[in-house]
Amino acid sequence: MHEMSIALSVIEVVVDKAREEGGGRVTGIELVVGKLAGVQVESLRFCFDAATRDTLADGAELLIEESEGRGRCEACGERFAVTNFFARCPACGQFRVTVESGQELAVRSFTIE
Amino acid sequence: MCDTCGCSGDGGAVLRKPGVKGYHVHVGDEGGHHHHHEHSHDHHHGEVRKVQMEQDVLLQNNLLAERNRGWFEARRVLALNFLSSPGSGKTSILEKTIPALLEQCPVTVIEGDQQTTNDADRIDALGVPVIQVNTGTGCHLDAQMVQRAVKELDPPERSLVCIENVGNLVCPALFDLGEAAKVVVISVTEGEDKPLKYPTMFHEADLCLLNKTDLLPHVDFDPAKCREYAMQVNHHLEWIELSARTGEGFDEWIAWLNSKIAAL
């Protein structure tokens, strides 16, 4: 359940920034979580409410954009969508894929009162 | 509540040393980011505005990990992060590895477990310095715990630091500790499809040790199949098969370590 420590990290990052911005109440947080980031979005949502309790972000709405994975075949150079790390290249059939995106785990923005 | 000093270190990690009764350090006691500052900005309550951030959630951990990495490199210390599910034989591998290395290179160990100093006690019996990090409810080590443990251990120049992570093939994959390489251990009593079931861990690893090969005659485990799955997830993964019980395969593993130590 690393989602709890990730939820706590999100709140820490946002609350620190919210203080810099005047310390108002945080009403919403927008995250980007790649489909290959190794984070279960449902668990993260579950942990979020507990992590926000008694902070500036208490009661904030959580918006998660799940970004798609993209890979490049090291054998033939083909670029294609991947949903896991053991993707087979659709062009040449090899498994020599380098994941180029889809591992993002970032706070995109938040809204503050 | 801490069972040693009674302080309210709920959920926080604690460092312990085998044989040193009463020794314990709460990770994060130094504070640093739990500051509350007074301010006199005007709050425009009721008016909602958006603040753009685009910040990596694990930035704090990653920055600390890079500090650890810089410290290790400056001291020419090889730090390895050992990862596996519980019971794959991480500690047994260390027990067999450390005596074989000690003549060439000092070794220190950081042990991660939720509770007990059992693994640290086993390493302590080898006569090398060891720190146990008890993560409490935590499922992984993080860069701050390692930074604190390294401060206590103070590993000598040109040495090896073995970091045995909490037994878990999921969570520790996401947390950079500042190690030079991640070594993932699996054993032949597990399913050969582990690399496909836990791809993030195998994708992040540099070397895979397949342990307990002495049991191969007794189990339905195809090492070639397992390796093929692992390579599908990470085609840069190095692969060594060994048995911590019989010592089979250790020549190759010790040679791998020696080549890394020689390059320090």
Element layout with pairings:
The complex is a heterodimer of chains A (113) and B (264).
Chain A: H1 2-20, E1 26-34, H2 41-52, E2 61-67, E3 69-73, E4 79-82, E5 97-101, E6 105-112
Parallel strand pairs in A: 1-2
Antiparallel strand pairs in A: 1-6, 3-4, 3-5
Chain B: E1 14-16, E2 25-26, E3 49-56, H1 59-74, E4 77-84, H2 90-101, E5 107-113, H3 118-124, E6 130-134, H4 143-153, E7 159-164, E8 181-187, H5 194-197, H6 199-204, E9 207-211, H7 223-233, E10 238-241, H8 250-262
Parallel strand pairs in B: 4-7, 4-8, 5-6, 5-7, 8-9, 9-10
Antiparallel strand pairs in B: 1-2, 1-6
Please summarize what this structure is.
The complex is a heterodimer of chains A (113) and B (264). Chain A is α+β, with helices and mostly antiparallel strands.
Helix content of chain A: 25-40%
CATH architecture type of chain B:
3-Layer(aba) Sandwich
Q: Look at the structure and give the mean pLDDT of chain B.
A: 90
Series of secondary-structure elements of chain A, N-terminal to C-terminal? HEHEEEEE
- Report the uncertain regions of chain B: 31-41
Oligomer: heterodimer
Distance between the termini of chain B: 42 Å
The assigned CATH architecture of the domain at 2-68 and 102-112 in chain A is: 2-Layer Sandwich
Could you tell me the radius of gyration of chain A in angstroms? 17 Å
**Strand sequence of the main sheet of chain A, in spatial order?**
2-1-6
Strand percentage of chain A lies at 25-35%
Radius of gyration of chain B: 20 Å
What is the structural class of chain A?
alpha+beta
- Count of individual helical segments of chain B: 8
- What CATH calls the topology of chain B is Rossmann fold
CATH top level of chain B is Alpha Beta
DSSP summary: helix tally of chain A: 2
* CATH domain topology of the domain at 2-68 and 102-112 in chain A: hypothetical protein PF0899 fold
CATH superfamily of chain B: P-loop containing nucleotide triphosphate hydrolases
